[in-house]
Automatic annotation (TrEMBL):
It is found in: Cell membrane. The chain crosses the membrane at residues 303-324, 344-367, 424-442. This is FtsX-like permease family protein. The keyword Nucleotide-binding does not apply. It comes from Streptococcus mitis. One of its GO terms (biological process) is lipoprotein localization to outer membrane.
C-alpha cells in the first residue's frame, strides 16, 4: 500500500504539489495564529500583572465634582476603612498637588512657550505637577510604563521629604540623587484652599525617564515637569498632614486567593462611607486602549487560525473530490478484482499523509520565518485603529496631554512572537486529522458505488 501510494504521489507531481502548498499554507497560518495568541497572552499577563487583581477608589463625578481643579477629594479615613478589610493585601493612595521650584526654570517646548502668558509665567512659571504616593513602584504612571525609574530607588511608605524627579529636569539644573531641593506652596493654585505658604526641603531619592506620547499645551503637562513625592510632602504643601489630607484616588490590591468582584461588592457595603460620592473601579478599566488592543489581537489571532483552517479544508475538499473523481476507472477495477473498500480508502489516505507530513514540517520553518513579520503587521494595524479611537475619546473628554492621558491611550506596543513546540504538535495532529477526514469524505461517495457503474461512467 505504501509503495503504491508513493508511486502515485510522485507520478501525479503537479496535483501533489498543489495539495502540498494548500496544507503548507493552512498549517503555516494556523501556527502563526497560535503564536500571536500565545504572545498576546504573555504580553497581557506581563502588562497587567500589577493591576489584574486590583481596583481603585475614585470620586463619582455625577454627584461629586471634586476639588476646584477637578481632582479627587477622597477622605483619608475612608481609604483607611477600605484597607482594614482582610482581603486587601496592599494599597497606594495619591495626593495631587502643585509645588514651586522657586528660582528655577521648567523645561519648555516651542508649543508650551507659545501658551506661556506673562500672567501664567508669574503664577505658575516654576510649578511642578506633583503626585504624592506611599509606594511609587505601584503608581499608575510607573505601572503603565509612562515613567521608568532609571536611577535611585522608589518611594516607600516610610519615606518623608523625598522626591523622584525627571532626569532631564535634574540634568538641566545639575541635580543628582541625594541632592536637596526646596518646594514651595503655590498660593495661586485653586486646590490650595487653605492658602498654605509652606516650604518643604526634599531629598532626591531617584530619577525617572519617559516622554509625552501626545501633544501638550502647557509646560505642566510635560513629563519633565512632573514629580513624585512621599505623602507627607504633598500634604504639607497644602497645609495638611497625612491624616487630614485630601486624596485624589487610591488603588487597592486584593490577595491572590480572593475574587476581585466579590471583594468590591463586599466593600461597597461598608458603613460610614458616603458611597454616593465615590465609586470603585477595576484598575484594568483605567487602560481601555490597552484592553482593546489586546482584545483586537486575540480576535485577529483566532481569525487567522480558524479562518485558515476553514478555507483550507473547503479548498482541500474540492480538490480531493476532483482528484478522486478522476480515478473512477481505477477504483472500479480495484473493486472488481475483489479489493475491499477499506483497502482502497487506506491507500488514498496514505497518499494524502505522504503529502501532508512534508508540508507540515515545512510549515514549521515557514511559520518560524514569517511569524514575527506577520504578527507585527497585525499588531500595527490593530493598535493604529485603537490609538485613533483613544485619541478622539481623550480629546472629547478634554483630558489634556499628560501622563494620565498617555496611560489612558496606551496600547500594546510589542509582541515576543515565536513558534512553540506545543503549538506545532497541535497543528500537526489537527491537520493530519482534517486531511484524513476530508479524504474519507471525498472518497465515500465513489467507494459506495458498484464496480460496473464506475467502469461504465468512466467510458
Amino acid at each position: 500500500m505504501l509503495h503504491n501510494a508513493f508511486a502515485y504521489v510522485t507520478r501525479k507531481f503537479f496535483k501533489s504539489i498543489v495539495i502540498f502548498l494548500i496544507i503548507l499554507l493552512m498549517a503555516s497560518l494556523s501556527l502563526v495564529g497560535l503564536s500571536i495568541k500565545g504572545a498576546t497572552a504573555k504580553a497581557s499577563q506581563e502588562t497587567f500583572k500589577n493591576i489584574t487583581n486590583s481596583f481603585s477608589m475614585q470620586i463619582n463625578r455625577r454627584v461629586n465634582q471634586g476639588t476646584p481643579r477637578g481632582a479627587g477629594n477622597i477622605k483619608g479615613e475612608d481609604i483607611k476603612k477600605i484597607t482594614e478589610n482582610k482581603a486587601i493585601e496592599s494599597y497606594v493612595k495619591r495626593i495631587n498637588a502643585i509645588g514651586d521650584l522657586t528660582g528655577y526654570e521648567l523645561i519648555e517646548t516651542p508649543e508650551t512657550k507659545k501658551n506661556l502668558t506673562p500672567d501664567r509665567a508669574k503664577h505658575f512659571g516654576s510649578s511642578l505637577m506633583i503626585t504624592g504616593v506611599n509606594d511609587s513602584s505601584k503608581e499608575d504612571k510607573f505601572v503603565s510604563g509612562s515613567y521608568k525609574l532609571v536611577e535611585g530607588e522608589h518611594l516607600t511608605n516610610d519615606d518623608k521629604d523625598k522626591i523622584l524627579l525627571h532626569k532631564d529636569l535634574a540634568a538641566k539644573h545639575g541635580w543628582k540623587v541625594g541632592d536637596k531641593v526646596k518646594l514651595d506652596s503655590n498660593i495661586y493654585d485653586a486646590d490650595n484652599e487653605k492658602g498654605a505658604k509652606e516650604t518643604v526641603e526634599v531629598t532626591i531619592k531617584g530619577l525617572f525617564d519617559g516622554h509625552n506620547k501626545s501633544a501638550v499645551t502647557y509646560s505642566q503637562e510635560l513629563y519633565e515637569n512632573t514629580a513624585i513625592t512621599d505623602i507627607h510632602t504633598a500634604a504639607k504643601l497644602y497645609g495638611y498632614t497625612e491624616d487630614t489630607a485630601i486624596y485624589g484616588d487610591a488603588t487597592f490590591f486584593v490577595t491572590a486567593d480572593k475574587n476581585l468582584d466579590d471583594v468590591m461588592k463586599e466593600l461597597n457595603g461598608i458603613s460610614g462611607i458616603n458611597w454616593k460620592s465615590y465609586t470603585l473601579v477595576k484598575s484594568s478599566s483605567n487602560y481601555p486602549a490597552l484592553e482593546q488592543s489586546i482584545s483586537g489581537m486575540y480576535k485577529m489571532a483566532n481569525l487567522l487560525f480558524w479562518g485558515s483552517l476553514s478555507f483550507s479544508v473547503l479548498l482541500l475538499a474540492l480538490l480531493l473530490s476532483l482528484w478522486i473523481n478522476a480515478r473512477r476507472k481505477e477504483v472500479g477495477i480495484l473493486l472488481s478484482i475483489g479489493l475491499k473498500q477499506a483497502s482502497i480508502l487506506g491507500q488514498f489516505i496514505t497518499e494524502s499523509i505522504l503529502i501532508a507530513i512534508p508540508a507540515l514540517v515545512s510549515a514549521y520553518f515557514l511559520a518560524t520565518y514569517t511569524a514575527r513579520t506577520i504578527g507585527n503587521t497585525v499588531l500595527a494595524n490593530v493598535t493604529s485603529g485603537v490609538a485613533k479611537q483613544a485619541s478622539k475619546a481623550a480629546q472629547a473628554s478634554n483630558l489634556g496631554g499628560g501622563a494620565e492621558v498617555d496611560g489612558f491611550s496606551k496600547t500594546l506596543s510589542s509582541l515576543d512572537i515565536s513558534i512553540q513546540t506545543s503549538d506545532f504538535i497541535i497543528v500537526f495532529v489537527l491537520a493530519l486529522v482534517l486531511v484524513v477526514l476530508v479524504m474519507a469524505l471525498a472518497s465515500s461517495n465513489l467507494l459506495r458505488k458498484q464496480p460496473k457503474e464506475l467502469l461504465l461512467d468512466s467510458e
